[in-house]
Design goal:
It contains 9 helices and 11 strands. It is an alpha/beta fold and about 250 residues long. It has 2 domains: about 130 residues, 3-Layer(aba) Sandwich (Rossmann fold), CATH 3.40.50.980; about 90 residues, Rossmann fold. The strands form 3 sheets. Strands 5-4-3-1-2-6 form a 6-stranded parallel β-sheet. A 3-stranded parallel β-sheet has the order 8-7-9, sandwiched between helices. α1 crosses α2. The C terminus is likely disordered.
Length: about 250
């Protein structure tokens, strides 16, 4: 840590995150969400890696948000566990059973928070024996420029990713292999063509794609009546809609 000088070795990170991963296993979580409300600290990454290696989703909460905004995100993502830093106790207390009823486990790090169990006492009871790590993900929330913040689930089993670009570029090869790692399907275009892209989106029910501005421009220049597909960005804003892809007039 920059100011305190605290050092965490890889061995310590592995053991501490393994302890909390075992605790998450005992909570019976499977594909669930853990919300994290903390200031920057070494414990932050220990919690984050425990969630990721448990095959769960991690939603990190901006502690500059209002209590109502925090409650919205916690409820919207369906978090079952909240890990909160004691320095943010006032904000954490605001996420009580009335405002965040889906939360089943509340843990305090670095001190006491009324109504929260001690994170340190919990992990101290856990073993550091290796477990079968799984591929968890971060479930981030947008800043909400077009309304309320929206959760962005990256990829998962059953998702279908369209790669419209050459695989020698950084993003296409990285995204394609990331989808494979998580059990999704990849549809690769031999070369980009805007109309073919739209047809592939319809035929394969594409859930994700990574496009550059030129590709959007070429799609926008296509004639109307090419279908009813919508493309939205990570914030839920519609980028291409029925103004361009409207059904033919009768």
């Amino acid at each position: 840590m920059g100011a305190s000088g605290e050092l965490v070795s890889y061995l310590q990170l592995d053991e501490r995150s393994t302890r909390f991963a075992h605790a998450l296993d005992q909570m019976g979580l499977r594909g669930d969400v853990v919300a994290l409300l903390m200031e920057n600290s070494a414990r932050y990454l220990e919690v984050a890696w425990a969630v990721r290696r448990s095959g769960l989703y991690l939603t990190v909460l901006n502690h500059h948000l209002t209590p109502a905004e925090l409650a919205y995100i916690v409820n919207d993502c369906g978090a079952r566990v909240l890990v909160a830093g004691a320095r943010l106790a006032e904000m954490a207390i605001g996420l009580d059973t009335e405002k965040a009823p889906a939360l089943e486990h509340r843990l305090a790090v670095g001190g006491e928070i009324p109504g929260f169990a001690s994170f340190e006492e919990l992990v101290a009871r856990m073993l550091t024996t290796p477990r079968a790590d799984e591929e968890g993900q971060i479930l981030p929330y947008s800043s909400g420029p077009t309304g309320r913040p929206k959760g962005i689930r990256r990829f998962g089993e059953g998702d279908v990713y369209l790669n419209p670009a050459s695989l020698y570029h950084t993003a296409p090869i990285s995204w394609t292999m990331a989808v494979h790692r998580l059990g999704g399907t990849v549809v690769v275009m031999e070369r980009f063509d805007a109309e073919t892209m739209l047809e592939l989106i319809e035929r394969h029910r594409i859930t994700h794609a990574q496009l550059v501005p030129t590709m959007f421009i070429r799609a926008l220049r296509l004639p109307e009546a090419l279908g009813t597909t919508h493309i939205v960005d990570d914030d839920g804003a519609v980028l291409l809609h029925d103004r361009y892809w409207s059904t033919p007039a009768s």
